[in-house]
Specification:
EC 3.6.1.41; Hypothetical protein af1432; nucleotide-binding; mainly alpha; metal ion binding; HD_domain; globular; binds fe (ii) ion; nucleotide binding; 197 residues
Length: 197
């Protein structure tokens, strides 16, 4: 598949709802299971917040929209799309899916709202100066994770969630840092630093 051509050629269809267009994208790129994961994350994000429901739902559906680009292609595709790539993302191109998803959300789904795009862009690592919207999408993705079974950190994360989003994010980041992390992304470390102040 020519990934860049697919992205460039994709058009929203006016006879389809916004969600139907997103579902079609996942279908055409043979990643429908990621669409279902996106729906779970979208619902979780909405349930975690009293506001921003429409934007959170959109961010949830689109956060992994780049799943069809294989890990082995992510570096090359990012470079071709002029997406800035950090040293750690060179080492672990899997991490580029958050930036690629934000690119596709804007290019293919006409998302202009920076609050949505920024949250998609840091949904795996969080980042320095995150806001509540970023935190909610980040946490929803960890609660409604894309792997089978119950996340090992879920109980502790849910307990921390009763205190604050920040406490819950710290539980997950600490779990990650103590469990064979492939590479410590600088955005993750910057977020942790701010969470522990
Ligand atoms: Fe996800």
């Amino acid at each position: 598949m020519d990934y860049i051509k697919y992205i460039n050629d994709f058009r929203l269809q006016t006879n389809q709802s916004f969600v139907e267009n997103i579902e079609r994208f996942y279908q055409e790129t043979e990643t429908i299971s990621t669409f279902y994961h996106g729906q779970m994350v979208a619902k979780e994000a909405v349930s975690l917040s009293k506001e921003y429901h429409e934007q959170l739902y959109q961010a949830g559906l689109l956060h992994d929209i780049s799943a069809f680009i294989p890990k082995s292609e992510r570096l090359l595709i990012s470079e071709k799309l002029h997406i800035p790539v950090l040293k750690e993302e060179h080492q672990v191109p899997l991490l580029l899916h958050q930036k690629l998803s934000a690119y596709i959300a804007e290019k293919c789904f006409q998302i202009k709202d920076p609050i949505i795009l920024n949250a998609i862009k840091c949904h795996t690592t969080l980042k320095k100066n995150f806001n509540n919207f970023d935190l909610i999408v980040f946490l929803a993705d960890k609660i409604a994770w894309d792997q089978p079974g119950i996340p090992p950190y879920l109980e502790e994360l849910n307990t921390a969630l009763k205190v604050s989003y920040q406490e819950a994010a710290l539980v997950y980041i600490d779990y990650l840092l103590s469990h064979n992390l492939l590479v410590a992304h600088p955005w993750l470390l910057a977020a942790k630093k701010q969470l522990t102040i």
